[in-house]
Amino acid sequence: MGRVTACTNQKGGVGKTTTVINLGACLAQAGFRTLIIDLDPQGNATSGLGIDRRTLRTSIYDALVDRHPIEDIAVGTQIPGLDIVPSVAALSGAEIELVPLPGRERRLSASLAGVAGQYDRILIDCPPSLGLLTINALTAADGVLIPIQTEYYAMEGLSQLVNTIRLVRNALNPRLEIEGVVLTMFDGRTRLSAQVAAEVRRHLNGTVFETVVPRNVRLSEAPSHGQPVAVYAPDSTGATAYRNLAVEVAARG
Amino acid sequence: MGRVTACTNQKGGVGKTTTVINLGACLAQAGFRTLIIDLDPQGNATSGLGIDRRTLRTSIYDALVDRHPIEDIAVGTQIPGLDIVPSVAALSGAEIELVPLPGRERRLSASLAGVAGQYDRILIDCPPSLGLLTINALTAADGVLIPIQTEYYAMEGLSQLVNTIRLVRNALNPRLEIEGVVLTMFDGRTRLSAQVAAEVRRHLNGTVFETVVPRNVRLSEAPSHGQPVAVYAPDSTGATAYRNLAVEVAARG
Ligand SMILES: Nc1ncnc2c1ncn2[C@@H]1O[C@H](COP(=O)(O)OP(=O)(O)OP(=O)(O)O)[C@@H](O)[C@H]1O
Ligand SMILES: Nc1ncnc2c1ncn2[C@@H]1O[C@H](COP(=O)(O)OP(=O)(O)OP(=O)(O)O)[C@@H](O)[C@H]1O
Ligand SMILES: [Mg+2]
Ligand SMILES: [Mg+2]
After folding, report:
1. B245: Cβ–Cβ under 8 A, 6 or more apart, which residues?
2. Average pLDDT over chain B, rounded to whole?
3. What secondary structure does DSSP assign to B122-163, as a single string?
4. What is the pLDDT of residue B245?
5. Res B99 pLDDT > 90
6. Cα A50 from chain centroid?
7. Of A5, A160, A211, B6, which cross-links A244 as Cys (Cβ 3.0–4.6 Å)?
8. By CA distance, what is B191's nearest residue in A?
């Protein structure tokens, strides 16, 4: 049974999509059959892997709202062993459309039950909010991966996120645990990055991964080529960081 | 009557809060009586202006859900002429609590009607989504200010945002217009920033402000001191950019 990891943080722009794409690619290259679920209506994980959203006939929207089987929606990527269930803009209506449906929090976990045997790892890219899409991801997940940008606002929403995880664990998914926190966009030239990193480790000691992802322009260029950084710039500091993170994640998983 | 501007973009981490705080401070220093509305449950605009959220008895939540008068909630900041209606974590429940209420999209515009005469400019900081909180902001606003980060994913959600603005204009608020687009976190050392800036100007020609906000570490340090950059580092490139932006915004307003 594949391990399901939800990558979430309601703070925007902290590196959720970048982490899912690049960790997913590294896990696939290490031999884990990996599936990415793009649960963000913006579809950045879909386009960041080079998939043209206008060509898609089905997406995660169909699985959530019409219970369309996931294996009919998943598509391959240019990385052998890495598939993705893409997202389209229509997904932004799903938050309101799901509200009256039975088992609205469990729609994703029901969908994934059908494919869990075909993958070793499933990574879910969440939108920057704690709404029904993210609740679906937390209900379907074994663990939560929390990217935290090493900037001042990083700690602000953390207690709300940890609270939400606890609520989901108590009411919907007893196996849910925090898999780990990954520090992102670390800039060694500024005092701010080091200060925030130290504070995050103090607050969350033990759950923070050793690997720290540096700020690296190759990571922000890679999606414009539709490639993970492991393909676009394999020798960059960004690619090295995600390879190291994949080793740590696999060891904990 | 004060002009109301909603600062929004569902893409996360593009500089919405940084723009509202620093544009607000510069407008106040230029003599405009300015009110900031923090409509994000994370409350980054509140803490970025040095306000301790734990000490607050009322917040924007009370105005939206219980119709509490805005003038009783607004608090002063250390910038003369700049007030803020703060936000607390409870606001994240408002999206669901507002759904059954009458006129759920107009709760903010009803609240602001009471104070519009006391301020020249009202700036609304939105969360990174197109949910009911952002719809309330668009329904209450005269214009929309759209920060766009000069990174690859910047253009992805733009058509969805423009669509939502059109829907709100047709169904809820006929006066709503796009006030302008501001390019943020521009890094002159990378080709990517210049490429994205050129593409945004091509797509949205005429609405993009001349002022481009550079990536500047002083902007990310200022909130940890609870100050706008105009106070924290008045000679920085970040402070200069927001002063110039305030001149352009005032001229269009
Ligand atoms: N380590 C890094 N170094 C440099 N740029 C990065 C890094 N990680 C992410 N980026 C860039 O920063 C921006 C934000 O990252 P990303 O989109 O992955 O964040 P997110 O949390 O998924 O955002 P959202 O909240 O909108 O979903 C993107 O333009 C991305 O390319
Ligand atoms: N021009 C800039 N130069 C350097 N850092 C910046 C700049 N603008 C914003 N930042 C920093 O980048 C991060 C994201 O900015 P900000 O929080 O203002 O974005 P946002 O769009 O409000 O995010 P959210 O989607 O979570 O509401 C913050 O840590 C902020 O301090
Ligand atoms: Mg994302
Ligand atoms: Mg913000």
Report:
1. B19, B23, B26, B182, B209, B211, B213
2. 96
3. EEEEPPSS-SHHHHHHHHH-SEEEEEEESSGGGGTTHHHHHH
4. 98
5. no
6. 17
7. A211
8. A221
User: What are the DSSP E strand ranges found in A119-170?
Assistant: 121-125, 143-149
pLDDT at A253: 77
> Distance, in angstroms, between B92 CA and closest chain A CA?
8
Beta bridge partners, B180, equal: B145
H or E, element range at B94: helix B94-98
State the closest ligand 2 atom to the C-alpha of B147, by its place in the atom list counted from 1: 21
Q: How far is the CA of A13 from the centre of ligand 1 (A)?
A: 5
At A27, the amino acid letter reads: L
Give the lowest-confidence range in A89-98, B84-93, B192-201, B209-218.
A89-98
SS3 of A2, please? coil
pLDDT the model gives residue B253: 77
The per-residue pLDDT for range A165-182, each reduced to its tens digit, is 999 999 999 999 999 999
Residue type, A46: T
**What DSSP element (H or E) covers A184?**
strand A177-186
What's the sign of the alpha-carbon dihedral B179, B185, B189, B193?
A: negative
Query: Which residues make Cβ contacts (< 8 Å) with residue A57, sequence separation at least 6?
Result: none
**Rounded Cα distance, A196 and A199, in Å:** 5
β-partners of residue B146 are B181
CA separation for the pair B49, B21 (Å, rounded): 7
Q: Which residue numbers in chain A have pLDDT < 50?
A: none
Under 8 Å between Cβ of A43 and A87: yes
Q: Is the CB of A156 under 6 A from ligand 2?
A: no
Q: Is A173 left (phi over 0), alpha (psi -120 to 50) or beta?
A: beta
Residue nearest to atom 26 of ligand 1 (CA): B12
